[in-house]
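Job type: complex structure
Entries:
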Amino acid sequence: MSSVEIAVMKPSVLQTKLIEAARREPLQDRVPYAFEKRIMARLAGMVPLNPWALWGRTLWRAALSCVAITLLCGLWTTSAAPKGENSDSFAQAFERAVFASSDQHLEDIW
Amino acid sequence: MEPTDAELIAAVIQGDSASFEPLIVKYQPRVFATARRYARRESEVEDIVQEVFIKAFQKLGSFRGEAPFEHWLMRLAVRTCYDFLRAHQRNRETNFTELSQPETDWLDKFVVEPGSADENAEAARQLIQRILTRLSPSARLVITLLEIEERPVKEIAEITGWSVPLVKVRAFRARAEMRKILAKISKEKYM
């Protein structure tokens, strides 16, 4: 087998060689002039996010919503409560409906 | 006496945004060097670095100070680079018919006598960059961290957020992917 064929048929040798070439490439850490100013200009007006503050804010919002819903439900219950007379007639009507079948049964017996 | 990283971070969290500038100045060369491993165009590199520092500023509240700020920032930088690779993976090159003349000459020299092809040659660096751009994002990331930067598997797992076995599996697949590309070059050019 010729050396050309050996080299062509062994990509792992080429891989090792090229990885070595990449390792030897010096780090390119140059920075464009005043790059930090550009970032600071982008950051103007932003505030770092604090996860605890976010969580606290969310909890407060949820708590306020719950209080508001509770108050609304209380108001609705109070305002929609039946008046005295109506409540009596409702109680009687309810009682009649519940005992309707037993009353009928008793009438049949008598 | 210059303020420490911890003091600067505390000041930023308390609302003094200007304290973030010394942190940028201190760490931007390392972030630029990292970004240049994954992107070639200078405009792309600058976009990546800018995104890294904006993310760092926004997430500074989640930095707990258990590890040095530099480690936290570099982890953020590598993850941002990985996101960049995934977003641009459609731009991967598809064939090797357009190798430059120095690259072709270097390959010819390697084929005739592997020992004579110099690893320091600019053509070899261009060729490896061309091959890296053809790899999938995860393969490129793992080849860069494991083979080129020679970082331990455990450290790569911490940087990427992958498990140690996953890093090993992806490294195995990445090497195979790279060999496949090299075999394709050999086939296209010499057979």
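Summary: Chain B touches chain A through 55 residues (CB under 8 Å). The radius of gyration of chain B is 20 Å.
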